[in-house]
Amino acid sequence: MLSGKLLAGKTALVTGSTSGIGHAMASKLAEAGANVVLHGLMDPTEGETLRQDFEQQYDVQCLFSGADISTAEGNEELVAVSVEKFGGVDILINNAGIQFTAPIEEFPVAKWDAIIGINLSSAFHTTRLLISGMQQRGWGRIINIASVHGLVASLNKAAYVAAKHGIVGLTKVVALENADKGVTVNAICPGWVDTHLVAAQFQARADRDGVSLEEGKRSVIVEKQPMPKATPPSSLGDLALFLCSDAAATITGISLPIDGGWTAQRSTFR
Ligand code: NAD
Predict the structure, then answer these.
(1) Which of 119, 160, 197, 203 for mutating ligand 1's site (highest number of atoms within 8 Å of CB)?
(2) 47 near 64, Cβ under 8 Å?
(3) Ligand 1 centroid vs 198 CA: distance in angstroms?
(4) pLDDT at 215 > cutoff 90
(5) Where is 35: in which H helix or E strand?
(6) 47 in ligand 1 pocket by Cβ < 6 Å?
(7) With bands split at pLDDT 50, 70 and 90, how would you rate the model's confidence at 267?
(8) Do residues 15 and 96 make contact, with C-beta atoms less than 8 angstroms apart?
(9) Each residue's pLDDT tens digit, 130-151
(10) Residue 196 beta carbon below 6 angstroms from any ligand 1 atom
(11) Probe ligand 1: pick from 193, 202, 203, 259, max atoms within 8 Å of CB?
């Protein structure tokens, strides 16, 4: 897609970039020349190895942080080490997230609090702490990884759907507040992406139906997506890179599905 070092001189912070979608996005941004703050729940030794691998592979500077961003303090720590190392953050991708499924009457309170904290409140904290620097520099990109569940609901996902609808709303407000400041703020809304986050759901279906993991995966996907395949994490990386490019300078406040047609099926009467 976009080629060349179009992000040389920029610094990107990608929360939850030790695996899955975040790792793919961090890779694309580093490939485009951005210095990257790698972040996620990972053993510090493995985190250091990941940091070194990125620096060698992409010839950029990297930092690893294992801050737990389920609390305000964890987000403050993550931002503080990022700013200390790089002087500021130009591209913020709020990606870290967790999932838990249960009917509302059985939904554990601790799971609700954790999902709201990690999937929604973290984006509030990182944004409130980093937006002033972007405004002062007159350039910034904030990309919030929402989900189709920021646009539509599914059974048994009360906390996740609430958090993802919340982050879509947060995206719109911060976009409006920064529309004349060179800072764009957008949400990406993936359907199924084959990562650790959804592996348990695929495995549970395979176990329930006594079929292979591949068949279980397909069975889960086609329930919601007309397109019977998951989006590869690298496509999310390409999309994030596009939103960071000059071509996307007037795209702000959107919630962009990348979902194999999932949300094309929704009623217009909502
Ligand atoms: P993943 O499980 O592969 O990665 C999640 C990342 O978040 C990891 O790096 C993990 O360490 C980090 N993380 C989790 N809890 C944390 C905490 N308390 N503190 C710090 N880091 C923490 O999942 P993924 O599929 O790559 O998900 C990334 C984002 O994409 C999530 O916000 C998810 O909701 C969203 N999403 C995923 C899918 C999908 O099908 N996989 C679909 C739509 C949206």
Answers:
(1) 197
(2) yes
(3) 9
(4) yes
(5) strand 35-39
(6) no
(7) low
(8) yes
(9) 999 999 999 999 999 999 999 9
(10) yes
(11) 193
